[in-house]
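Sequence in, structure out.
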Amino acid sequence: MIYKKRQVEMEKKVLIIGPYFHGYNQSVEKAFKKLGWETKVVDFYESYHPITYKNRFLYGLLPLIGVKHFATKYDNYINSVMLKEYNEFKPGLVFVIKGHKVMESTLMAMKKSKTILWMMDSIFNRYGKKFYTYKSILNYDFRFMFEYTDVVNFEKEGVKAYFMPMAYDETIYYPEKNAVKDIDLFMTGLIYPVREKIMLRLIKEFKDIKMKFYGHYLVWRYPLRYIRYYLLGYRKYFMDRNIEPSEINKLNSGSKITLNIHHNQSNFGCNPRVYETLGSGAFHIVDENDYIKDNFSDAVVTFKNYEDLAKKLRYYLNNPNEREIIAEIGHNKVFNNHKYTDRIKEILDIAGIET
């Protein structure tokens, strides 16, 4: 769909506010800079930092029993930082990513500027109505959702929102020259139970291939993981650590297949791993949904269930030429259409802001 709005002139200064995660704020900042904007970034932590037992107790467990003093204290602090930077920088545009730490009072104090929200998680399917993002949704001039069903849900509530999928940073994710593909199957991300169930079946069935799963595996809520990891030899599969984007790019390039399993929040949309994997020039197998079928059917291989995944893994591990052809199509597609610069241009065009 093409949206046409009257172009609005403003000082090309943008304050970018978003969570400190994989450098997404900085990737958005680079896109704005390429378009000639002066930028400033305010990072916030999604939950608590550093991840210590004390902070898990103060910011993670206590709110579950109604003690929100410490979490609220951080929220108040980071909102004061946002306002300080806003008042000093005086931007024409405030660009908020996710926004679940941005209070309504903070947005109200920024009304001299145009405000834009870009969600990189689902409001309805993941965060819910209790977070600041939903409570403050009408305080944004424009709202962009990475998950299309959020657009539909907001429409039912009389709120205008636009579908805007994720993207990738081509300065971080690119094909590594002369990469040796010595890993058969690679995946990175949060290891929540749905993903772990599939991983455990793969480990049991594919004993003859080299698999590497990155992300924190040992979590106290899942005690059986400690037994698998320390007593059953699963540490050769689960690396039990998060990795930075530069290392993800190297592992994408050094793997025959990169696997992706979406969180259940993604009904019509996809996570950034799709774009980043293809940006790396890697061959990608991902669980199927309508958005991926409509936009990437020639660029990735999708699976419907575990049996379908296992069948396709065996096939493509034994057919490297087909992997290379599909991977090249995927890389060209995201490079030409799905960079952060492409998304920011489209967002500004919908908002009627000159680029």
